Amino acid sequence: MGKRVALVLAGCGVFDGSEIHEVSAALVHLSRGGAEVKIFAPNIEQRDVVNHLKGSPTEEKRNVLVESARLARGNIQDLSELKASEFDAVIFPGGFGVAKNLCSWAVDGKNCTVNEHVNSTLQAFHSAKKPIGLCCISPVLAAKVFPGCEVTIGQDKNVDGRFPDAETASAIAELGCKHICKNVNESHVDKANKIVTTCAFMCKAPLHEIFDGIGTMVQEVLKLA
């Protein structure tokens, strides 16, 4: 029987929701790994709505659960309904919506608050010693909720211009966590906390390398499960 994995989304679109390619990559690798996946998102209003053609905010109001349903092909549940006891693992793809909708990192950095249902989900899986997978900016959720954990968002320096958000590693360290430098096609496993992270689009890299890195994260999560 395949592992049961919950996938938590933050909307639809890199600038105000979940990063679509990361979600797709995670789903492909989970499918290949024989996992049974259910998708969740919080039923809340987005912090903002971005015109992805222009890269600028609009006056629209959108709902995170409704927008996430686009990626889930309609098969999605309110995050408040997620029960850790029914799953073997949970995975959070990235995208700026994580830093806007699942927490307030986009505005408050290391002083951010985490959505109550996101926080309770993370705590429930951690308490049950079930693995948590996070990619791109999502590792900041673990850094905020689990002081002392180990995560990666890629590199802590902007190597060759490929890691423009490398300063996030310093903020993670300031939260009392350890940042582990990894390449885009790698992931890091915090064995003590069963947290698996990979940098994905935190690195400017070809899409296939990001896809492969997410694959290593998914594989490690399934191993731990």
UniProtKB/TrEMBL annotation:
SUPFAM superfamilies: Class I glutamine amidotransferase-like. CDD domains: GATase1_ES1. InterPro entries: Class_I_gatase-like. NCBIfam families: PRK11780.1. This is GAL3A protein.
